[in-house]
Amino acid sequence: MRTTLNRVLLALTGLILLALGLAVLIGGLDLQRRWGFTMPHWWPFTGPKDVLLTAHDRTRYRAHGWWWPVVIAALGVLMLGGLWWLLAQARTRRLRQIRVDSGDGQGALLRGRALEQVLTSEAEAYEGVEWAGALLTGKRGTPEARMVLGLAPHATPDEVLTGLDTAVLARARTSAGLDRLPAEARLRAVRHRASRVN
User: Which end of the chain is more exposed for a tag (fewer CB within 10 A), N or C?
Assistant: First the structure.
């Protein structure tokens, strides 16, 4: 949801900036006169000396009592919307609890952090992984794992990913009673000192 909203907002912002940029470019370079075409009557720039808002347009409502409250309210709404969007980017969709089928029809809840710690510790114990981090996202009944693995210099990424799927994630699925546990793994190389040979 957040990714879709980000893409829509970025696309709308890009289209608005592109249209404004083209309008300034057409007017500033006087392309209408040079290339011999006409723009609609509502087009803001018709020549290099035109401005977006004339002096009359800029000062027309200053004498009215409602002008400054409306300007301040509009800017406040824009600022609050921008802050909301910024905070939404920083917020993680960490899964707090996972629903586990206990067989009695009631079910049980497993803490998400507990499963994250198990995934982290088991991944770190795997050969070729020096450090690991795990985060659970999604919904209670259909969790998804995001993992970051720091690979040792001698590790083979293909073997590490195969082991992660067949050992670490398989055990997590079995212990939590999940049919499936989709995972996204990001592999990073661990920096190490060069070894000297005497």
Answer: C
